[in-house]
Amino acid sequence: MKPGFRTIKRVKTDDIHMRDPFVFTSRKENRYYLFGTTFADGCGDKDPIFEVYCSDNLVDWEGPFVAFQPPKGFWGVRHYWAPEVFEISGRYFMFASFKGGIGEHRGTGILVADHPAGPYVPHSEGPVTPLDSECLDGTYYEDSEGQKWIIYCHEWTEIYEGRIKALRLSDDLKYSYGEPIEILNAAKMPWIRHFGDPRIEKTGYLTDAPFMYKAQNGELVMLWSSYSVPNYGDAGLGGYTVAVARSANGMIEGEWTHDKKLLLDRNAGHSSLFRDLKGQLYICTHYPDTPHGSERPLFIQVEEIENGIVIIKD
Question: 282 near 298, Cβ under 8 Å?
Fold first, then answer.
């Protein structure tokens, strides 16, 4: 693993400041690799990078190492957000958000490496999300027919009512094709509230962090995040949350339904699912979401039941 300019340390999970955490479990090595949003916009003379921590037990970590150092001229210049790593055909592919130069939209690009920790190099030629749309948080899914997909957020800052959409990917993961399939319109959710950013003087219905999971009952489950109204969930927090959508036939094309009950409503979100080396299913999220600067990775045991995914250990 490649060291960067930051000191490599041994730390506990609670010591790692990170948004959008993602755990890749390597059964080949009996290790875990933790990615996330850390050095997203660079600092001083240091360019933005993606970093990785490694662990044998999900408690004690070593890092940060450099997972991706952008080469000179790389199209993504800032907003290095939400990396996710998938093993596909014996190689490791990172799906991650980047903001291009002036006049260019944010999008999800695909990187590749021969080891889960990297070093990753560019794979797709620029973003695989639409060039004419402001996009983020692309994730990967391969359906039962072998079709590869990217599922991504179409930003509320551009269209007010944030959407989650899907596009077909080429088999070599170099490009997307076809027309986007809309999975949801955030404004239609009964629990959602306006999200505002005073810096750009806009409000809208935010969509974050789609993640796909094929359930044992054949349903395709999608986790995603936004902000809930006060007094909706069990704790009534009205903060960052995790919601569940599901496709009963197990296909991206749906049709999709949306759980009225939130999976998490505790100022935590941007979640994914992973299994540990013993097969236990976890949700990986950051907590708290606010105040900014306090975010840490959080792993919560969950299990599947007939009607979905439930938390079994806070």
Answer: no
Q: Is 205 helix (H, G, I), strand (E, B) or coil?
A: strand
Closest CA to 270 of 108, 137, 79: 137
| Rounded distance between C-alpha atoms, residue 305 and residue 131, angstroms | 40
What is the reported pTM? 0.96
pLDDT in tens, 107-162: 999 999 999 999 999 999 999 999 999 999 999 999 999 999 999 999 999 999 99
The string of pLDDT tens digits covering residues 206-253 is: 999 999 999 988 999 999 999 999 888 666 567 899 999 999 999 999
In degrees to the nearest 10, what's the CA dihedral of 135, 77, 285, 161? -20
In whole angstroms, give the CA distance from residue 165 to residue 296: 28
The residue count for the chain:
314
Q: Is 89 helix (H, G, I), strand (E, B) or coil?
A: coil
- Compute φ and ψ for 14, nearest 5 degrees: -70, -10
pLDDT on residue 197:
86
Domain count of the fold of the chain: 1
CATH number for the domain spanning 83: value is: 2.115.10.20
Per-position DSSP letters for 208-270, written without gaps between them: EEEEEEE-TTSPEEEEEEEEBPTTSSSS---SEEEEEEEETTSSTT--EEE-SS-SB-SS-EE
Question: What's the pLDDT at 309?
Answer: 75
Tokens encoding 256: 């999709």
Write out the residue range of the structural domain in which residue 128 sits: 2-313
